[in-house]
């Protein structure tokens, strides 16, 4: 009986000893992890020394860094890139953002800026001038050599006007380069100014390639013969009729 009790006691001691060993090993591991983390977050080796900003042209590097929330000498491990990306998304000129850590001391920001297809009148009484991209997204900025959309009425109309501009640039980039203004008043009756001539195009879904070819032929004839022309009405053009009114 005494021998059985002694054996049970010894067994309990062994279990306690094993448990103690596990606790000690676990504690040492936690301590090592803590020490290692402290080294990573406090060491000068992992302080941010460089912030790269790539892909910008209209934006300024210092503005991007300022809005990103990144700090020189901040710790690279404790920097939350999701928060950085969230901060930069408030910049309307930015289309896409890619941010990566380059250990031990560099953060790299790669930006794709929105490409404007036109200027647009915005604000109260449409007195402000901003930019618009192929998706109809409006953002601040300045650009030269692109047309201006005037007298816009609503978002759906604006998208149709932008689609028309995009189709025009893809069909004939030279004509797009000579486009100065487009009216956004009526999406079913496109009006614009090109080559210093007011042109009434009509329905945007017409055969653009052939219609544009005939329009350019008329404009070329006007230039070669040095005729005075302020208005061309091509609304009633059809592939088999080609009715074009010149004033």
Would you summarize the structure shown here?
The chain has 247 residues and is α/β, with parallel strands linked by helices.
Keywords:
Rossmann fold, 3 domains, nine-stranded mixed sheet, alpha/beta, 247 residues, 12 strands, three-stranded mixed sheet, Ubiquitin-like (UB roll)
Structure description:
With 247 residues, the chain is an alpha/beta fold. It folds into 3 domains: 1-42; 46-113, Ubiquitin-like (UB roll) (Roll), CATH 3.10.20.310; 116-246, Rossmann fold. 39% of the residues lie in helices and 25% in strands. It has helices spanning 2-42, 61-68, 81-88, 155-171, 173-177, 208-224; strands at 50-54, 94-102, 106-113, 116-122, 128-133, 138-139, 148-150, 179-183, 190-194, 197-202, 231-233, 245-246. The strands form 2 sheets. Strands 6-5-4-7-8-9-10-11-12 form a 9-stranded mixed beta sheet. Helix 6 (208-224) links the parallel strand 10 and strand 11.
List the helices and strands and how they pair.
Layout (H helix, E strand, L loop, with lengths): L1 H41 L7 E5 L6 H8 L12 H8 L5 E9 L3 E8 L2 E7 L5 E6 L4 E2 L8 E3 L4 H17 L1 H5 L1 E5 L6 E5 L2 E6 L5 H17 L6 E3 L11 E2 L1
Parallel strand pairs: 1-3, 4-7, 7-8, 10-11
Antiparallel strand pairs: 2-3, 4-5, 5-6, 8-9, 9-10, 11-12
CATH class category name of the largest domain: Alpha Beta
Shape: elongated
Question: Unreliable stretches, pLDDT < 50, 5 or more residues?
Answer: none
Proportion of beta-strand residues: 15-25%
Q: Can you say what the CATH homologous superfamily of the largest domain is?
A: Cell division protein FtsQ/DivIB
Largest sheet: 9 strands, mixed
Q: How large is the count of helical segments?
A: 6
CATH fold title of the largest domain? Rossmann fold
Mean pLDDT: 87
Q: How many β-strand stretches?
A: 12
Helical amount: 25-40%
CATH architecture of the largest domain: 3-Layer(aba) Sandwich
- What is the domain tally? 3
Structural class: alpha/beta
The run of helices and strands is HEHHEEEEEEHHEEEHEE
The order of strands across the largest sheet is 6-5-4-7-8-9-10-11-12
Distance between the termini: 124 Å
């Amino acid at each position: 009986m005494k021998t059985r009790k002694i054996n049970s006691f010894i067994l309990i001691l062994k279990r306690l000893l094993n448990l103690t060993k596990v606790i000690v090993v676990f504690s040492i591991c936690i301590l090592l992890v803590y020490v290692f983390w402290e080294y990573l977050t406090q060491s000068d080796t992992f302080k941010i020394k460089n912030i790269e900003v790539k892909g910008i042209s209209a934006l300024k590097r210092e503005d991007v860094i300022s809005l990103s929330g990144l700090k020189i000498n901040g710790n690279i491990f404790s920097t939350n890139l999701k928060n950085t990306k969230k901060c930069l998304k408030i910049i309307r000129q930015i289309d896409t953002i890619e941010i990566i850590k380059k250990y031990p001391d560099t953060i790299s920001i790669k930006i794709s800026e929105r490409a404007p297809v036109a200027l647009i009148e915005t604000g109260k009484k449409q007195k402000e001038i901003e930019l618009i991209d192929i998706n109809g997204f409006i953002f601040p900025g300045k650009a030269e050599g692109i047309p201006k959309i005037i007298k816009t009425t609503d978002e759906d109309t604006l998208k149709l006007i932008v689609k028309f501009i995009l189709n025009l640039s893809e069909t004939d980039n030279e004509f797009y380069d000579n486009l100065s203004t487009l009216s956004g008043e009526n999406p079913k009756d496109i009006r614009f100014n090109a080559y210093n001539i007011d042109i009434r195009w009509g329905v945007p879904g017409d055969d653009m390639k052939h219609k544009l070819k005939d329009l350019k032929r008329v404009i070329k004839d006007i230039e070669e013969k040095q005729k005075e022309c302020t208005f061309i009405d091509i609304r009633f053009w059809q592939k088999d009729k080609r009715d074009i009114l010149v004033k």
